[in-house]
Specification:
- The longest helix is centred in the C-terminal third of the chain and has 13 residues.
- The protein is mainly alpha-helical and 87 residues long.
- The relative contact order is 0.18.
């Protein structure tokens, strides 16, 4: 049982590299250029709301939707501010 919990924790680790989200080259490069190389950094940015992500060069509505879908599908819990549609 502890083994399963450890695996789940690794799966939803904030230190997981952005590349593992398999968002596509353009989105991954845009996030990297903004200094976001881990899932934790994306989640931190999402705490400020969707607009904070959309301010980043190369990140538009579609990329933001893809990022959120991928994070949810991998078991990450999105911050409440990221659920508010502001645009």
């Amino acid at each position: 049982m502890a083994d399963e919990q450890r695996k789940q924790d690794e799966k939803t680790s904030p230190d997981r590299p952005v590349e593992e989200l398999e968002l596509g080259k353009r989105a991954t490069e845009s996030l990297a250029e903004a200094g976001m190389t881990t899932v934790g950094q994306i989640l931190e940015r999402l705490e400020a709301g969707e607009a904070a992500m959309l301010e980043l060069p190369g990140i538009g509505r579609k990329t933001l939707i893809d990022v959120k879908k991928k994070l949810r599908s991998m078991g990450y819990e999105l911050p409440p501010a990221a659920e508010e549609i502001t645009v």
